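Lab meeting, action items carried over

1. Structure of the two-component assembly. Owner: GW. Status: complete.
Input record:
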Amino acid sequence: MNNVNILVIDDEAQIRKLLHIILQSNGYQVAEAVNAKDGLTAAANHPPDLILLDLGLPDETGHVVLKKLREWYTKSIVIISVQSNETDIVNALDNGANDYIVKPFRTGELLARVRSALRFSNVPDDESVFQFNNLFIDLSARLVKKGDEIIKLTATEFSLLALFVKNEGKVLTHHYLLNQVWGSGYTNQTQYLRVYIAQLRKKIEEDSNRPVHIITESGVGYRFIIME
Amino acid sequence: MLLVTLSFLSLFLNILPVIAAALVSTFIWNFFFIPPRFTFHVNSAEDFFLLIGYFVIAVVHSALAYRIKQKEKRVQEEKQQANMLKLYDTLLNSLSHELRTPIATIIGATDNLLMPGGKLSDEDRRSLLLEVSVASLRLNQQVENLLNMSRLESGFIRVKMDWCDVNELVYATLKHLEENLKKHTIQINMAEDLPLFKLDSGLMEQVLFNLIFNAIHYTPENSQIIINAACVDGNCIITVEDNGKGFPPEEIERVFDKFYRLRFSKTGGTGLGLSIAKGFVEAHHGTIQLQNIATGGAKFSIKILTGTSYLNEIKNE
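Predicted assembly:
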């Protein structure tokens, strides 16, 4: 973990310092930038493994920086936002951010986001067999097992689960999920999503009311996680 | 009779219309009662003075009535102002207390931790840090409440209606309350075949959070909190009840008022939680009510008439 570089783009000195200490003490190399211009330059000069990007920068908004970064930068970008403004967050996620974290955040939460964003930066695309705790998923064989028991999924449930598994740890917005699984004509039909999420949870979770894999991100979307 | 009407009028009108009314009534008196009747003629000097006399009495009478009215108005205004001041005082007191207590804790604890040559044991150090942590979480929640209140006050609240699984909503809310829930038991009763409802899940989660948080905060340890959800005639009905002591009946009307806090209630609230809950429910054009349960405890009932979608309407592809 010694050579993992993280770039923090945030204008608040206190937050930069806090992030620096937390990340460094957990073994990451940290670079800092105080505004959009410096951030873009720093990212271009020494492309990091992960970028933590504040949405409220003094010279340009984080949204603009995000768009400019995504023209060439392919690794993970995690948004830091003070506003728990869902629309803002959903916009950023739909424009290529991998994840978000809202100030004030808990350290454990921050580190979990960083870990999963880094994992995402390094997942090979062709992987098709996954083992999460007692859940076994083979995407190419279309086989899902909970413990030893084979779980029967409908075609739609399977596409939804496959999408989640390939994006483990990442928040997927309602819009994205509907578009990928049902198609572009269905992006407002959130009732489909609610129904299939409930069905999928009943099949793969131990307690569908207290899910540990398919986590609700209120007003934003869903996140598939493996227990850490 | 004319004088009675006049004094009645003077209680409601300003001074000029009242004098005009006095003049009119003088003419009416002249017309009907001073011979020759049914004319405005005044023949004798005696009648003329009688008429002037009447006019003077009418004016004095209405002026007096007017002054009484003014005085009453002033007293009422003063009373209202005093009430406003009292409300403002309560608000400032509770706010500054609620914000300053955690701030004082943080400043005090960090000063202590940073003291050069301090001889704190590891245990003390840890317990001070724990205090800082609790205080900042509390501060964060108060700020959240104030921000929500100002969103409501400014009318800048957009309700984003979307299909919402109430079961999911309730459990997601409880997950955010995990740390507070250790000393209470929760029972959840979802009606079978509960449809999806069109609601703003963000706002509704805040509503449920505030109601459940309140129930946890103001009932003794080991109390039970019951959450019910059902669909009745297209209405989304959600109730949150507890088996605590309930509310004093004379205060039930006021608990949703902004900054209202129960008399003798324990510290640790700004009196905003329930008024925010009410505001958010009303933003959905719904209602929220509080009643005491006969067997003890309080019950909050939310009722929102909104769109529904039944799970079985979508065929399982």
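2. GW to write a short summary for the group page. Key points so far: The longest helix of chain B spans residues 45-114. Chain B has two domains: 2-78, 162-313.
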